[in-house]
């Protein structure tokens, strides 16, 4: 009986380790989704509420996207997840840090809690809590400012939305797969599922952004900065 009990405890321990196993995703990744249908999946249709459909039809990226003419505009979640710029993952004790080259934006993911405090403010990147499930990193984000899901398309998202991100690697690969579930009853009658991939790039580094603006009140822009802005449009 004692042998069977010890065996049961051992199996239970191994099962727990499998469920909560942490995978080292540390490193820099680059965007590979542009023009590649195999590495990005967006819904073919969006189950808008009536209010969201009006907002979507009225959206004009040339006017409503704050990045146009202002490279210093803060990047917001979840549109930040579709950035074409590199991203870096760092695991630090009870936190996972996600650094985006875009505007030097940093997300802090609090592993295994704590939940957001009652007075948690809404910010561009929101409040993120993470956990490990069977080698996958699960991140839940709330308290975002709202805006749009993808900058150039304009699907609305409210400050009450909840994002669930799932990160994993396929067997034998170093690229990072990302699935995003958007739960936002204000704008969608059912949750949305989106997906993309970041390519592993061990030779890349996150460079300083050095933003600039075409606002007439700003100092005159350097020609190199103007050229970079035009290339990004």
Structure report:
- The chain is α+β, with helices and mostly antiparallel strands and 233 residues long.
- 18% of the residues lie in helices and 29% in strands.
- The protein is built from four helices and twelve strands.
- The protein has helices at 2-20, 50-58, 61-64, 223-232; strands at residues 27-31, 40-41, 87-92, 95-100, 106-111, 127-133, 136-142, 147-148, 156-157, 162-168, 176-183, 192-200.
- A hairpin with a 2-residue loop joins strand 3 and strand 4.
- The longest helix is centred in the N-terminal third of the chain and has 19 residues, at 2-20.
- The chain is globular.
- Mean pLDDT is 84; it is low at 4-19.
SSE topology:
Blueprint: H1 2-20, E1 27-31, E2 40-41, H2 50-58, H3 61-64, E3 87-92, E4 95-100, E5 106-111, E6 127-133, E7 136-142, E8 147-148, E9 156-157, E10 162-168, E11 176-183, E12 192-200, H4 223-232
Parallel strand pairs: 5-6
Antiparallel strand pairs: 1-3, 1-12, 2-12, 3-4, 4-5, 6-7, 7-10, 8-9, 10-11, 11-12
Notable characteristics:
233 residues; alpha+beta; Lipocalin; 9-stranded mixed barrel; two-stranded antiparallel ribbon; 4 helices
């Amino acid at each position: 009986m004692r042998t069977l009990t010890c065996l049961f405890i051992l199996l239970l321990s191994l099962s727990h380790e499998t469920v909560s196993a942490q995978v080292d995703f540390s490193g820099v990744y680059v965007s590979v989704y542009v023009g590649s249908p195999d590495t990005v999946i967006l819904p073919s249709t969006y189950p808008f509420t009536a209010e969201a459909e009006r907002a979507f039809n009225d959206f004009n990226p040339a006017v409503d996207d704050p990045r146009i003419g202002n490279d210093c505009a803060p990047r917001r979640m979840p549109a930040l997840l579709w950035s074409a710029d590199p991203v870096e993952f760092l695991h630090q004790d009870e936190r996972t840090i996600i650094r985006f080259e875009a505007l030097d934006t940093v997300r802090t993911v609090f592993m295994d809690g704590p939940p957001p405090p009652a007075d948690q403010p809404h910010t561009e990147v929101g409040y993120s809590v993470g956990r490990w499930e069977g080698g996958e990193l699960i991140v839940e984000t709330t308290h975002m400012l709202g805006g749009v899901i993808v900058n150039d398309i304009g699907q609305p998202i409210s400050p009450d939305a909840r994002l669930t991100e799932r990160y994993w690697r396929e067997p034998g690969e170093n690229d990072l797969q990302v699935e995003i579930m958007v739960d936002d009853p204000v704008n969608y009658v059912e949750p949305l599922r989106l997906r993309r991939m970041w390519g592993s790039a061990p030779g890349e580094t996150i460079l300083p952004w050095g933003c600039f603006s075409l606002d007439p009140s700003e100092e005159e822009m350097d020609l190199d900065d103007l050229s970079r802005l035009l290339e990004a449009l």
